[in-house]
Write a structure and sequence with these properties.
Shape: globular
Number of domains: 1
Largest sheet: none
Number of strands: 0
Number of helices: 6
Mean pLDDT: 78
Structural class: mainly alpha
């Protein structure tokens, strides 16, 4: 897990409403994230697991709040059987978004 923090000029209690475009902070707010500190704690794995966060939204959030950082999904050549057996509802979103980020970054 990447434990990087948000841009140093941000305060932990700063709300996202004034820092991000409306569509981005609404996506995060729908998922219970309203402060910079919460985004920093969720970056990148929890953000990628959110149903409303796709590759473009993720990259825009990353560019706005984590300048100079770029998450690179690990390459996985095969699907592990234990991944398929897990009862997690967020795992398909996470895998799909990681694959989309890989494709998006190739362009």
């Amino acid at each position: 897990m990447n434990t990087s923090t948000a841009h140093p000029s941000f305060h932990a209690a700063t709300t996202l409403q004034g820092l991000l475009p409306p569509h981005l902070w609404r996506v995060l707010a729908r998922n219970g994230i309203t402060t910079i500190e919460q985004v920093a704690q969720s970056y990148p794995e929890k953000l990628l697991q959110m149903p409303s966060v796709g590759p473009r939204t993720f990259r825009k959030i990353e560019e706005s709040l984590f300048p100079g950082k770029r998450y690179a999904p690990p390459r996985q050549a095969y699907v592990v059987q234990t991944d398929l057996d897990q009862p997690s509802r967020t795992l398909p979103f996470f895998r799909r978004t990681q694959n989309a980020l890989r494709r998006h970054d190739l362009k």
